[in-house]
Amino acid sequence: ELFGVCGACTVEIDGVSARACITFAVQADGSDIRTVEGLGTIAGMDRVQQAFRKHHALQCGYCTPGFLMTVRDLLRNHPLKTDDDIRDGLSGNICRCTGYEHIVRAVRELADEREGAAA
Question: pTM (2 decimals)?
């Protein structure tokens, strides 16, 4: 059987992205765990949620939580200079609805913002 391949259950454990489906509870004992529910509210969305909404980077919603959590990790830890870098970073998450183009656009905007803020 294949587990951990779709990325839909990605969470942050002590600030590092991890697949909940292949993490034993004992491994996370005492850890700080953040799920997509901890990102924001409808009235106060996280910046990643805002970008996904703006670029229509979701459809059925099944994969969206995992993408949101993965993107947060990518923005913290990877340069994302090109769209190929973004696609490579997202390659562990599967979406059957969007064709990824809108997701890449959302991440490109976030990466460009991050680079602008760093300048």
Answer: 0.92
Phi, psi of 17 (to 5 degrees): -70, 140
Q: Give the up-direction half-sphere exposure of residue 109: CA atoms within 13 A in the CB hemisphere.
A: 16
Contacts 24+ apart (CB under 8 A), 71-79: 71/106, 71/107, 71/110, 72/12, 72/17, 72/39, 72/46, 72/48, 73/12, 73/16, 73/17, 74/107, 75/48, 75/107, 75/110, 75/111, 75/114
Write out pLDDT tens, residues 48-63. 999 999 999 998 999 9
- Please check whether residue 20 is in contact with residue 11, taking contact to mean a CB–CB distance below 8 angstroms: yes
Residue 111 structure tokens: 């990466």
Which three-class secondary structure state does DSSP give residue 45? coil
* Strand positions, DSSP E, the chain: 10-13, 16-19, 33-34
In the sheet that holds 33-34, the strands lie side by side as: 16-19, 10-13, 33-34
DSSP-derived letter for residue 8 is T
Cα dihedral sign, 61-65-70-75 = positive
